[in-house]
Amino acid sequence: MLPSREEILRSAIFKTSRSGGKGGQNVNKVSSKVELVFDIENFVYFTDEEKALLKVKLQGRLDNEGLIHIVSQEDRSQLLNKEKTIIKLIDLLKKALTVQKKRKPTKIPKGVIEKRLKNKASTAEKKKNRKITDF
Known about the structure:
The protein is of the alpha+beta class. It has a domain at about 5-95: Double Stranded RNA Binding Domain, CATH 3.30.160. It is built from 5 helices and 3 strands; from the N terminus they run αβαβαβαα. It has a 3-stranded antiparallel sheet. The radius of gyration is 28 Å and the shape is elongated. It starts with a helix and ends in a 5-residue tail after the last helix.
């Protein structure tokens, strides 16, 4: 089950810094880059199974302490960048918590097998007719 936005905000840590890119002099004086740090292990909303699943699926995104870092510096506004990091985290958690259904193998229909064998036989017949036979 996915936690609400407010529950995530209570446990997430936000760090701000100056970002590069567009903005002119605004870049030099405003800290618009936002980094969201989220600790899966200390988040009380997830069960132990969900925490284990998140650790496995997000293995490449975790640092040495088991924290997820999400950075946004696309906009000139710190508030917009903060919103984007929250949205990115929710999407990341949503994708990681979805369990794919196990695929049920199905039999190949008889009609498909027959069609393939007929096509194969006709191709063999064509190639056989290309041979020059001596009488």
